[in-house]
Amino acid sequence: MTSFDSATQTELEAAAFRRLLQHLDEHKDVQNIDLMILADFCRNCLSKWLMAAAEERGLSLDYDAAREQVYGMPFEQWKAKYQTPATQEQLQAFEAKQAEKKSKAT
């Protein structure tokens, strides 16, 4: 693997994160529950990780501000425009995923 200096590595990771946010923004039809089922993370998780990264650096970033960065708009606005109710199939798949995680942990 190519090694980069720390600043370059950080810039590359930041660019990849921005691209991920752009990709999610371009695919608003992909619901958070779909992401949770397939990848075990969602837009809200990204928001929490962003908030935690700020906190690790002694910076203040509240959850609503972090979600606005990830969603590209206030969460309540995004939710009203793009979030759909979870289907029974999605809920069942999510519960199965959670049960699978729980069984692996024990």
From TrEMBL:
InterPro entries: SMc04008-like_domain, SMc04008-like_sf. Residues 30-95 form the SMc04008-like domain. It holds the Pfam family DUF1244. This is SMc04008-like domain-containing protein.
